Amino acid sequence: MGIFDFYLLETIINGVLFGGVLALLALGLNLVFGVIDVIWIAYAEIVMVGMYIIYYLNVVLGWPLVFAALASILGVGVVGLLVHALIISPLLDTPPINQLLATGGLLFFLQSFATLIFGAEFRNLGLSMPILQFFELYISFSRLLAFGTALVGMIALYLFLTRTYIGTAIRAVAQDREIMSLMGVNTRKVYLITSAVGGGMAGLAAILLVLQQDVHPFIGYTFGPITFMICVMGGLGNLLGGFLAAFIMSQIISIGSFYVSTELAYVIAFILFIAVMFIRPEGLFQRRA
Amino acid sequence: MLTLRDVSAGYGSFQALFEISLEVSAGEAVAVIGPNGAGKTTLLRVISGQLPILSGSITLQGRSLLGLPAHRFIEEGIAHCPENRRLFPRMTVEDNLRMGAFIPTARRHFAERLDWVYALFPRLRERRGQLAGTLSGGEQQMCALGRALMSHPKLLLLDEPSAGLAPVLVMQVFDLVRRIRAEGFTVLIVEQNIQQALELVDRAYLLEVGKVKLSGTAGELKNNQFLRQAYMGL
Ligand SMILES: Nc1ncnc2c1ncn2[C@@H]1O[C@H](COP(=O)(O)OP(=O)(O)OP(=O)(O)O)[C@@H](O)[C@H]1O
Ligand SMILES: [Mg+2]
What we know:
The structure holds 2 protein chains of 2 kinds.
Chain A: H1 3-36, H2 43-60, H3 65-88, H4 96-118, E1 131-134, E2 137-140, H5 141-163, H6 165-175, H7 187-212, H8 220-233, H9 239-259, H10 262-279
Antiparallel strand pairs in A: 1-2
Chain B: E1 2-11, E2 14-24, E3 29-33, H1 40-47, E4 55-60, E5 63-64, E6 78-81, H2 93-100, H3 104-107, H4 110-120, H5 122-126, H6 137-149, E7 155-159, H7 167-182, E8 186-190, H8 194-200, E9 203-208, E10 211-217, H9 218-222, H10 225-231
The complex binds adenosine-5'-triphosphate and magnesium ion.
Magnesium ion binds at residues 40-41, 83 of chain B.
């Protein structure tokens, strides 16, 4: 193998690692949509809350990173619960546009709130993670760590949804919400739990992102659009579809960046997305897992 | 065991049930028959708490069920196998049965109840890992019955279990219900196959436009002139 091939291999591996992060990002949003039929427009900003939680606890208060990370999962889980209880629940029986507008309002609120408290500066944990070398391959440890964490998070969610009664009920609600009361399931409670779990996933995603990039009040714009695209492309609410779409998109971006440029790679990804939407408006994969 | 007194109910300004009085004793099987749109499904939905009533009273073993939230009725012992089965199509047979055992009292006995349902319907055991939506019509009905039985209800409500099935399967479903009866369950069944239903139950009520038109023992109704002419074409 020539040196060139190693670069390409490295690109593909980085694409896979990036795909894991995107897949996890899509998961929380997708779960909430699949079960509650509601789209959190402010999802990326909710992830940002987690990034600031980690930054604040770790850098400002000096907590160990592990505890700050756990606090992000819990804290953003509570944010998810509150988003449902305070914003979505009162609007649940009104036209969907109201929920979009309300969570859209939340997006601007969170951005302004973050600016108010932390200012517009870019903040980071000041970590310096090693670059690992395998033969002639160079892989950044933070990416590997992010990928591993994403994998653990996704497996945990999978086990929760398939091995527990409440997880089974969450999947059941996505298939037939009207008969849940016949099973003795209180759907309002299931929605709250789903929102908390969706928030927890966002809190976990925040850990992965804050390991690799600076946080600032408008960071949601950098990964929000691609997250939404992945969910829609995989078939909104379809967890497995979103998972696969994340890896397709990450490879396009990774390989595109290698051969041309990052900007153009994103353009290609967006064009592909639009093309998919014309050919299969319901997404590449069937709606809902 | 179940007593309805002058129950009225409806959807918005449309009244679907008018002062229905009905009784089901422990161990009994009772049928509700009547033409399309008579209010049979509405009646079952009222009994399982899915639809609030406008007036009247409902009691189970002397306890009033009024004001209880819909998801609490199964804990009181009322399981409702709804019209069109309504399985979770993209979940396995076993996960569907698991949902039937969602309430805490049933969860504790999940393993033994599962064995018991599989013994009652061995076909389900063979299909335990299959997605419910891909089962045949008859198997789906078994799964729906099994799901309703997982909570070991005091009262089992069945809404047209034989609907949409080929004649040979209709016979099979009546057989299944007979087996459930033999296990000692109290059953309130809505049926369009009036003759077969009357072979199965102890008593029946005929519903027409939201009112009880006739009621009596299965023997009486089988010989009722009006019922024979209007509904059995005899
Ligand atoms: N969700 C609803 N909203 C408004 N009206 C309804 C609703 N459900 C039923 N109805 C009306 O209530 C009446 C009784 O309906 P119901 O479903 O109880 O009849 P049924 O006896 O079960 O009929 P079938 O044999 O066709 O199942 C009908 O006139 C029906 O149109
Ligand atoms: Mg009906």
